[in-house]
Amino acid sequence: MLTKRIIPCLDIKDGRTVKGVKFVDLRDAGDPVELAAAYAAQGADEIVLLDISATNEKRKTMAALVEKIAARINIPFTVGGGISSVEDVAPLLAAGADKVSINSSAVKHPELIDQLAKEFGSQFVVLAIDARKVGNQWIVHTHGGVVPTDRKLFSWAKEGQARGAGEILFTSMDHDGTKSGFALDPLQKLNELLSVPVIASGGAGHLFHFAEAFITGRADAALAAGVFHFGEIKIPELKLFLKSNNIPVRL
């Protein structure tokens, strides 16, 4: 079994790390540069930075902040928010990003996935999908979870993979910030449908939630924010717990 990854997520608004519940009621969680450096030192496998208001504010992700973070960490670094063209990516690469995450722009222009994969390689492209359950369907939302679309989670994930996305980052909006655990059923189904890695996001509250994401949800990686930012879970403690439950992690 491949090593499972633990990924702290830095949601950025106005240059600060923020965290909310179900994508609203945001509160300050600290300086993103210092947080990223601390997580890298604690043994995080990757860092994800998402400029969560870039799309709504119609601006590009802050390359200067990316550069500051990249200078302080030695682990893979994914950056997303406001990326709507191949041209948007070069400054992020130059600033130190290893991968880019696209979400709203990919839903609006699916061919962007093809273009980025062709230009930079599939391993560089992460398709982020924010979805919530409406009736018996998981409906994709864009613009920081504000705008519902006519796309469904599973068919969109399959299309994203076919177009060249190298990873799928699935966030359950229903679970986000609730600390009630990850959305295990859709995670499991995504794993069955796809051949690319699936990152679980939304709902981490306890050590055992990560174990559930890997064992039941069969996720390849688990992403969390608030439990790390506010010191409720320490990454070294989490990895030792996972190791004790026979889940392969990098210590």
Strand order of the largest sheet: 1-4-5-6-7-10-11-12
Radius of gyration: 16 Å
User: Outline, from the CA principal axes?
Assistant: globular
The CATH homology group name = Aldolase class I
List the uncertain runs: none
Beta content comes to 25-35%
Number of structural units classed as domains:
1
The overall pLDDT average reads 91
Task: Just give the CATH class.
Answer: Alpha Beta
Largest sheet: 8 strands, parallel, barrel
Query: Which structural class do the helices and strands define?
Result: alpha/beta
| Structure annotation, total helices | 10
SSE layout and pairing:
Elements: E1 5-13, E2 16-21, E3 24-30, H1 32-42, E4 47-51, H2 63-70, E5 77-80, H3 89-95, E6 99-102, H4 104-108, H5 111-120, E7 125-134, E8 137-142, E9 147-152, H6 153-163, E10 167-172, H7 184-193, E11 198-201, H8 207-215, E12 221-224, H9 226-229, H10 235-244
Parallel strand pairs: 1-4, 1-12, 4-5, 5-6, 6-7, 7-10, 10-11, 11-12
Antiparallel strand pairs: 1-2, 2-3, 7-8, 8-9
Description:
This protein has 251 residues and is an alpha/beta fold. The chain has a single domain (5-244), classed as Aldolase class I (TIM Barrel, Alpha-Beta Barrel), CATH 3.20.20.70. Helices cover 34% and strands 28% of the residues. The chain has ten helices and twelve strands. Strands 1-4-5-6-7-10-11-12 form an eight-stranded parallel barrel, surrounded by six helices. Strand 7 (125-134) and strand 8 (137-142) form a beta hairpin. Helix 2 (63-70) packs parallel to helix 3 (89-95). The chain is globular, with a radius of gyration of 16 Å. The chain starts with a strand and ends in a 7-residue tail after the last helix.
